[in-house]
Amino acid sequence: MAETVTSKNMALAKAINESLRRALDTDPKVLVMGEDVGKLGGVFRVTDGLQKDFGESRVIDTPLAESGIVGTAIGLALRGYRPVVEIQFDGFVFPAYDQIVTQLAKMHARSLGKVKLPVVVRIPYGGGIGAVEHHSESPESLFAHVAGLKVVSPSNASDAYWMMQQAIQSDDPVIFFEPKRRYWDKAEVDTEAIPGPLHTARVVREGTDLTLVAYGPMVKLCQEVADAAAEEGRSLEVLDLRSVSPLDFDAIQASVEKTRRLVVVHEAPVFFGSGAEIAARITERCFYHLEAPVLRVGGYHAPYPPARLEESYLPDLDRVLDAVDRSLAY
């Protein structure tokens, strides 16, 4: 008997599409909603073909009204559905911010645990695609600050597939940040593998001299930094957080106790970014292990610039390597 092939090479966007398809196929309570997610298949074609195969009552083209999209999803979740809503671009989420932080995040606590809202809010985020204003934001820290929300971001196709499955199955609301610059990066996806827990970090490269921590779009950059550092005889460990809230501090601590140095990298501004919480907590936990202060590399505390300037705004190989050099100089 021939073996069943469960591993496929696919782009990150395709992996999310396949994951949504599987969820729609196995659970009639799963719905996909958003602007242009149906007939068009989404502006990045992440939902391509889903409405054709599952119908307009399961894959729903909504009006251009983000607050209405999330508000409707909350009502549907109260009736037992599991809506997956798309915010077309990161900068468009703010009209829905009130619904997300005031209603979606708080209903479970407000009802003393009696009401659950299994809603997934998909948000393509980050820069690197030469987009116009409001299309390249990184607002993950705004949502990580809100109790009652889970905030995750895959860095590769395999995680995108399985983390979407886990997010849809979660009884808590999940903000699912999709790194749009990595939509076309391909990787092997085993659609029958047993995944680890949703909110655990993963070491994607072993090292001994310094730990690089990142999530979403910056994981690939950190792997490139580790390759470049290896040419100079330096061994860098790369840790993919996968989840921004909750954070897997145990995994970070274990890595830092081994390497004794930490650099945190994210596209979002360094000021009040997720790296600040990581730096503070790891300094508390690993004070007697650290041989250098925790350093952070990220965007600047300024509005996201026009496309022609984004390469100067976003962390790149040289900026991260400079942080590595500064840390190792202590």
Topology:
Blueprint: E1 7-11, H1 12-26, E2 30-34, H2 50-54, E3 59-61, H3 66-78, E4 82-86, H4 97-104, H5 107-110, E5 120-125, H6 140-144, E6 150-152, H7 157-169, E7 174-179, E8 186-190, E9 202-205, E10 210-214, H8 218-230, E11 236-240, E12 243-245, H9 249-259, E13 262-269, H10 274-285, E14 295-299, H11 310-313, H12 317-328
Parallel strand pairs: 2-3, 2-4, 4-5, 5-7, 6-7, 10-11, 10-13, 13-14
Antiparallel strand pairs: 1-8, 6-12, 9-11
Helix pairs in contact: 1-7, 3-4, 8-12, 9-10
Mean pLDDT: 96
CATH homologous superfamily identity of the largest domain: Thiamin diphosphate (ThDP)-binding fold, Pyr/PP domains
Q: What's the number of domains?
A: 2
User: Roughly how many Å is the radius of gyration?
Assistant: 20 Å
What does this structure look like?
The chain is α/β, with parallel strands linked by helices and 330 residues long. It has two domains: 8-190, Rossmann fold, CATH 3.40.50; 202-329, Rossmann fold, CATH 3.40.50. 35% of the residues lie in helices and 21% in strands. The chain has twelve helices and 14 strands. It has helices at 12-26, 50-54, 66-78, 97-104, 107-110, 140-144, 157-169, 218-230, 249-259, 274-285, 310-313, 317-328, and strands at residues 7-11, 30-34, 59-61, 82-86, 120-125, 150-152, 174-179, 186-190, 202-205, 210-214, 236-240, 243-245, 262-269, 295-299. It has a seven-stranded mixed beta sheet, with helices on both faces. Helix 2 (50-54) links the parallel strand 2 and strand 3 (59-61). Helix 3 packs parallel to helix 4 (97-104) and helix 8 packs across helix 12 (317-328). The longest helix has 15 residues, at 12-26. It starts with 6 loop residues before the first strand and ends with a helix. GO terms for molecular function: branched-chain 2-oxo acid dehydrogenase activity; magnesium ion binding. Residues 10-185 form the Transketolase-like pyrimidine-binding domain.
